[in-house]
Every structure is written in structure tokens, then in C-alpha cells.
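Deliverable D5.2: sample structural annotation.
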Amino acid sequence: MQAKLSALDLRFSNIEAQLGAGETYEDPALVAKLNKEQRELEPVVTAYRSWLRRQQDLKDAEELMGDPELGDMAKEEFQQAKEDLARLEDQIRILLLPRDPNDDKNVIVEIRAGVGGEEAALFAHSLFRMYSMYADARRWKVEVDSVSETELGGVKEICFTIEGDGAYSRLKFESGVHRVQRVPETESGGRIHTSTATVAVLPEVDEVDFELNPADIEMQVFRSSGAGGQHVNKTSSAVRLIHKPTGTVVECQQERSQFQNRDKAMQLLRSRLYEEKVREQEESVTAERRSQVGTGMRNERIRTYNFPQGRMTDHRIGLTLYKLENVMNGDLDEIIDGLITADQAERLKNSQDT
């Protein structure tokens, strides 16, 4: 492992030298590439250099342990250095795990009301609000691509894009069935109802990542509308794309221009088909060893939001928090950090088993 780390350290130094050379900036594409590689290498190189320093500290402390005046202090430093080295080694093992190539991408999120009628639609809207507030807190940009609203302010389904650094790396574990337990506003008897909504998180895929054959796509145009026929356009600017080989259908109606809606719909279609292809590959190659936190569990219940008890439970990692109001207002970092840690632990275990 040290040989690999030494090679990464050398590469990091070479990148620094290249970025320090004036002629490098004559090629903007090269500068962007080097900056990206530098950002990816920096965490592991920083940890490795800290490990090297603590290794030297350990040796220095060991040499002084027999000194009558400095021996006690050296023993304390020796023990502390050993603990730091163990921690840094664990950190480096995690940093050396293969990166998800989609982690830096923007995401397309689709939320659909599930079981529970109007209450499910209201919950779907609450989830959209939750993710929007989380994105705002991280200074990410949210754009609604298409939405089907209900009369009471819920959404049957909504598709939106979140643009921001590392959006997919933070949100990819949100895919699955979300369950809510609460008293609906329409319930006069005060009974608690259970409803669900499904969330799908797709990496935004560029044309170069996944090529579509135009002959496989049928485009339909129609007039967009809101709940109860409100906001009806006078022109047919909304776009529906049908991928004939798979039957996949996507729509986009938020933009005023048909061309803008078509571009967004193509982006969504590309992402859906790419995600399906990746999922099929994962199932065929790693069906027996997929992490329970991974995308393979998206069709099962992943989380429960219990409003009477103010409780949120993520069933994949057994995490329960009694601060539901904060969670619904976009305070998701504790949950997401727990999911990332669980995923890293599972992948570490798998890498050591092979």
C-alpha cells in the first residue's frame, strides 16, 4: 500500500508543479483537468503525509524512551503516535476505496406519491421541500423539470435537478420508499395514517457518457398545465419523449420554450437509461455482495417519518433521530453521513474479503 501512496504523492507534487508553470494556463482544458485531479488526490495525499510525519515522531519518541529526563514524555508521545497512525491508516484505507465515477455529478431527483391517496401526494411535496431546503443550505441550485400537482397542494409526481459540487455523492442513498405516519389535515377523527412516496436519485449524464440513437426516440408535444388545469399554455411547449426499445417515458414542461424542454427531457432520458444499465450490470456482477445501503434496496422501505413521536428512523443503518421537524426542514447531514460511513465500512469489508 505504501508504494501506491508514494506514487500518488509524487503525482500530486507533479500536478502542483504543472499548475505553477505559466505555460500551463495557455490550455484551459488542461488546467481544469489538473485542478480536478488535484482535488481528488488531496485528501489521500494529506493523510499519507500526516502518516509519514507520525511515523517519524514514533521513531524519535522510541529513541528517547530510555532518557532519564525525557523518558516519560517520550512514552506518552510514543503511545499517542501509535494511536494516530492506526487512525490515519483506517482513514487512508477508506480514501483508497474506488470512487463512484458519478459522485461529482449533478442529480435528477424523481419523487412520486405512493400508497395513501391525497396524503401521499402531500408527503411527496414535503419531501421535495426537504430536499430543496437541504440543497439551499449547501448552496446548490434546484430546478423543477416537471410536476403534476393536486388540488390540495400535493404532488402526484415531481422531477427536479439539483446542481452542485458532490450532489450525487451526498444524495445517492436517498433512493427508495419513504414512509410517513401522521394525522392528515383531512382526517377529522385524529387517526394516524400511513402513506408512502418513492424517491429515485439519478446522476445527470452528459451526452458523452451515454449515447442515444435518435431513431429510437419518439417525441410528442402538448400543452403544460398545473393543478385543475391552471397555468395552461397557449402553445404546445411541453415535451414527452418515448424511448421505443425500453418503453421509458419522460416529460418536461417547466420551460417556456419547446426546445429547452426537449433538451431537459433528453438529459433526463439519458440519465434514466444510464442508471438502468448500471443497475443491470451491478445485479449481474455483484448480486451476492451488494451493500444494504446501496442502490439495490431502492424498492424497499428505507425510512419512516413518524410525526406524532417527532421521530425519523432510517431502517438500513438503524438510525433513529427525535428531531423530525429539523429533518423535514432539510437537516439531513447526520443521516447522510451515517449512510456514507456504513457504505464505506461495507466496501472495506468486501475489499478485505477478496
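Annotation notes: The helical segments are 2-20, 28-64, 71-95, 117-137, 167-171, 258-286, 324-328, 333-353. The first strand starts at residue 107 and ends at 113.
The annotation will be released with the project's public dataset once the embargo ends.
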